[in-house]
Amino acid sequence: MVNIFPNPSKFNDHENTNKIVLVIFIKITKVIVKEELKSNLINKKLNIINWFDCHYTNIGKKDFWSDVLIVEFKDKFELAKFYKDDVSKINLQAVQVFNLLPKNSPRFFVNFLKLFRPIGYFFELIKSSKSELHNFSNSKSNILPTREQAERLLNEKSNKKAYMINLLELKEMAQYKDKSISITGREAYVEKYGSQAFKSVILLGGDFAFNGRIIGNSLIEYNVPSDTKGKWQALAIAEYTKACKMLELEKIPGYSKGLVHREAGLKRNYNLYATKNI
């Protein structure tokens, strides 16, 4: 048995009165156990921002996690109550918990970009209806799907909105073929690639459900796979009208040119395909 809530003593004194946002990765193999946990958390009036059902891994070695929760506590003292109650006295196969500092984009900016979606739909219609699978390989890339993972995503039949949950680790300094470029991995990935990717997702009919900076190391690690071990720097959850849209971003002008910055700045990416539970 493992408590899914971290010991409040892990938080610094200056955080006592601040809101605490956690992202909790869980592996549950039995539906009845999952429903019991969900019922416990709802009855305790936990502020669940999002609960995602995870289906499979798009970037990473294997399918593992079954659920991802984002929860919020008013302060360290509210977290202490849940920690003491230990509502998770059920059979969980694995748990990993991160402390997040939300970095969501202003909604007025997102809504402004949505006005231009007809342009995105136009490019979606005039360009090839399927992603080029030769762009993916069976190489051990830390930032791309394998060919088999891409094919599975392209063939996904669900009509539910798709949520791509990303854990991101950036390089300290970006690595370009042009050695004269000297910028940080964050500048390359977030400022150069990220701004273009953000616009492309919106123009394809998508959105961003949640973005946040991960503070420090994992607060809890229990039976965690190698895929998600280590120090991550950010969580980004993109929303698409359907799963295959993640592989169609190159239909939007400008996106392809930004890929060089993703390659230069991103050290490691773990990506899960999920749908919404709460």
* Beta-strand segment tally: 8
Average residue-wise pLDDT? 91
Q: Please identify the oligomeric state.
A: single chain
Poorly predicted regions are none
Write out key terms for the chains shown.
278 residues, alpha+beta, Alpha-Beta Plaits, 2 domains, 7 helices, 8 strands, 28% helix, 29% strand
Summarize the structure.
The protein has helices at 31-43, 76-85, 107-114, 117-126, 147-154, 185-203, 255-265; strands at residues 20-27, 47-59, 67-73, 94-102, 162-170, 207-222, 234-240, 266-276. The protein is α+β, with helices and mostly antiparallel strands and 278 residues long.
Task: Summarize the structure in words.
Helix content is 28%, strand content 29%. It contains 7 helices and 8 strands; from the N terminus they run E-H-E-E-H-E-H-H-H-E-H-E-E-H-E. It has 278 residues and is α+β, with helices and mostly antiparallel strands. Strands 1-3-2-8-5-7-6-4 form an 8-stranded antiparallel beta barrel, surrounded by 4 helices. It folds into 2 domains: 8-101, ACT-like. Chain A, domain 2 (Alpha-Beta Plaits); 107-276, Alpha-Beta Plaits.
